[in-house]
Amino acid sequence: MPTAEHAPEERRSAIRRLEGDRSRARLKGYLAAVLAVSVGTLARFAVDPLLHDKAPFLPYVLSVLGAALYGGLEAGLATTVLSSLAIDYFFMEPRFSLVLHDPSDVAALALFAVVAVATSVLVQRLHRASRAARERQQQIDVATAAGGVAIFELPVGRGQAASAERIERTFATSVAGFENACLAGGERIRPQDRERVAAAVNACIEERQAGCDFEFRTEVEGGRTRWRSARARLFPGTSGSHARLLGAMVDVTEIRESADARAASLYARSLLEASLDPLVTISPEGQVTDVNRATEEVTGVARERLIGSRFSEYFTEPETAEAGYQKVLSEGLVQDYALTIRHANGRTTDVLYNAVVYRNEAGQVQGVFAAARDVTERKRAEAELARYRDHLEELVRQRTGELEEANAHLRSASAELAHSNEELEQFAYVASHDLQEPLRAVTGYLGLLEGQLEGKLDDDGRRQIAGAVQGAARMHTLITDLLALSRVGTRGRTFAAADLNAVVDQALDGLRASIAETGASITRDALPTLTADAGQMVQLFQNLIGNALKFRSERAPEIHVGARPLPDRWELAVRDNGIGIEPQYYERIFLIFQRLHTRRLYPGTGIGLAICKKIVERHGGAIWVQSQAGQGSTFYFTIPTETSHERTSHESPIRQTD
How far apart are CA 579 and CA 577, in angstroms? Predict the structure, then answer.
């Protein structure tokens, strides 16, 4: 190490070395000036046959520029002086003389000198600026290397978006120098973050933002993940050049991991405290490592005392608790493990424990996480429920006996009712049948009386006899309808396959006269074959179509018989364009002897629709009507599809005219 007395000598030596370096640099500059002037002179002589005395300054401008670039300002000024002398001596009149007679030559030579000096000064300034830029770049490189900062540049065009792949290539290159993060330059932005990074850069580019900040994750060799924080700024391009996105990035992995660890710890603590059930974590040695508030309350021991103590100490049966803990360690999981916690004041709480081991990233067991569910109230409820269950079973036995007795009475009453209904139907049939004979006798006697008194009766007498005959006729019709109604349930045939197309044909044949009289038009869909009583089906369609003919409007009747399949039945319909029915009468018309019009306007007994309803119900279906006064009516009924064979013929219009 130099002493104080040696310092002046060292300074003088350094000064001498510095002066020597300057002298050598100055000499090199002068030599460069001489060489540049010589080259310029030779070049001018080479083109002199072509230029003669024109443009004598051109090669010397290049000589001044070259000398100034090599040797600096002094070399440029020396070249300017030597070039002026060479131009005057060799290329201006009179040649080979330093005397100038033409004022224009003097002015030209003076202008050359000014331009040459200005060029030298400008080159000197460019030298200084370049040296300063290099020094600043070195300083930036040192600073970025020391601070772990990476600089990136992304050329973009006007309105050009930055694709995710392009962003990835740019960042993968720029972060390659981050410490040991990028092994062999293999770092790449994670796929989950590529679109987000591209969106941030695009926003900066497209919206001409002053700058943008964003974070992203990268993957390096070995599957490791690094966090990067970037800040970029858009620099618009000048005319003819592209804009540039310049930015810097730093590695914030440690910061993020530290923050994530703190957040995870707070999150885990929050989860523990949010539970109303006792939660505890236990080390592999069986010591408590953490608890929540509910554990403190159920044991009566503060958290500080619980942590570090044996887990099994707080149960009425420590051996059972220890066995359960060992079972978790060996099997990895236990569920509904019954234990009883003992409070510090002696109170006990029945619980069911669910426990599972937790591991570190290497798969090593770090401890056990256990959660206890208080089942004290549930056990009490179960005991109470058992008492209620025993009491309920006794009540059920009593009630079952009562119901069996009631069912016996009900079966007896049902049998009696069935016998009564059978007798009632038999009585209705017998009464209707037996009433026919005296009614025929009354009608016969009235006919004889009318014949014997022919010409002897006045108008009142004839009207009275005619009224008696009409009453007897109505009575005959009523008895006939009652007989038909009673036969629906007692004289029905066994169900068999019935082709409803043939059924409707038979019903229309019975209504041929009415159809011809009214000029009705009747159409129908293709009808199915169903398991039914064919005779009653004929009566059903004949009653419904007959009603459509009877309750017609001033228009010619238009009647349509339709059918459509349902999941377990067929729905059939008879639609007309007659007088219609008010909604309040939809249910009433199916009751026996219920009429909506006078006999004079529409004759009948009011039993026809009651017969239809009974036929449909015997077949297990239902019947209803939809109508609007003045617009016609549609009677719907359903027949179950126990066995059905759908016909494939198309709708066929039928018009009866005879």
Answer: 7
